Known about the structure:
Blueprint: E1 7-8, E2 29-30, E3 43-47, H1 63-73, E4 84-90, H2 96-112, E5 116-120, H3 127-132, E6 141-146, H4 162-167, E7 174-182, H5 189-197, E8 201-204, H6 205-210, H7 216-220, E9 224-228, H8 250-262, E10 268-272, H9 284-300, E11 314-320, E12 327-333, E13 339-342, E14 357-360, H10 362-369, H11 375-384
Parallel strand pairs: 2-4, 3-4, 3-5, 5-10, 6-7, 6-9, 7-8, 9-10
Antiparallel strand pairs: 1-4, 11-12, 12-13, 13-14
Amino acid sequence: MDIKIFLSSVDTALLEGNSHASAFSNNISIHTERMPDFAGSDIALIGLPDNFSDSFGPENPFTAASEIRRKLYRLRKGHGAYKVIDLGNLRSGSNLEDTYLRIQEVCDSLISQNILPVFIGGTHDMDYGQYRGYEEMEKLVSVLNVDAMLDMEEQGNPNQKHLNSILLHEPNFLFNYSHLAYQSYLIDPKIVSVLEKLYFEAYRIGHLRSNIQEMEPVIRNADMLTFDISAIKSSDSPGTSNAQPFGLTGEEACQICWYAGLNEKLSSVGIYEYNPVLDDSNKKTASVAATMIWYFIEGFYHRKNDKDFRTNDYLKYVVAMPSHPGTLVFYKSKLSDKWWLEVPYPEGKSRFDRNCIVPCSYSDYELAQQGDLPDRYISAHTKLI
């Protein structure tokens, strides 16, 4: 399908005042008067409509995406030879389901061309369309969600129950779901128990903040990232209807996006729930979101292509265990110093082949040396049975 029919141009007024040669907007291709050729691009920006919430201005259905672009375009180009394109804005469908379908079509088309889509704007339930973009790829995927809440309500607005749509979607191609930065006093503890019973991961904001480097393997395991801007504390990000006094700092949000950019496996990103109407006069939240995108792109162009564990670029460590499975096999990249753990999959279940080596940390290796199975091994092995 030609996805160009779904996309409208970027407002040229957003380009005004960006005369410096190193400005971000002067180093990417932008859909203005005509759609540029996006074949061979690495990353594509797509603005999503925000007119499904009464709190957004109906006169401009892409206010959120436009404000983020305004800030992003004025940043300076980072590392690497950019092959980034701004495809413009996704036109709304006749109803919400039709809009999900359009996001699905765009996501599927771009990923199949090895182009990584970055969706900006829209409410958080738009990630359901992003997730469905993987449906025809005949592989299992891992989802990473950053949010102060767990949106699994039985009733309410679509952005309050979209995780149910993802977890219950048929056909089921979800291998793992990881949740970062939830705040315990905002959610029903029963929901966390449901995720744990499914051997999914959920990390409180305090756990993440105490050692954010330990979250890197969790981020590295994701195929898609969905980020609710309300996970960032209101002093750094006031422009959201669910703004909270506590949460991630803007710097921590950027570090998560940096790690996500480094992840060779990750193939789509969505940054949701920005409401310009609620932002301050300087559009601080838009600046934070723009900087997050900048750091993601910076991480992307620092990727090390850690893929082939049979090359001399890896050190292999075999740890003898006191009980089953007898031994654990770890790999360490000489290029990036990252660690992986081999999890044998059951015979005849080749569908899981791509998941048999999972990201881990040095602390998992230390734990194995002490004779204990890392939680990451237990979780992955249970899903493969």
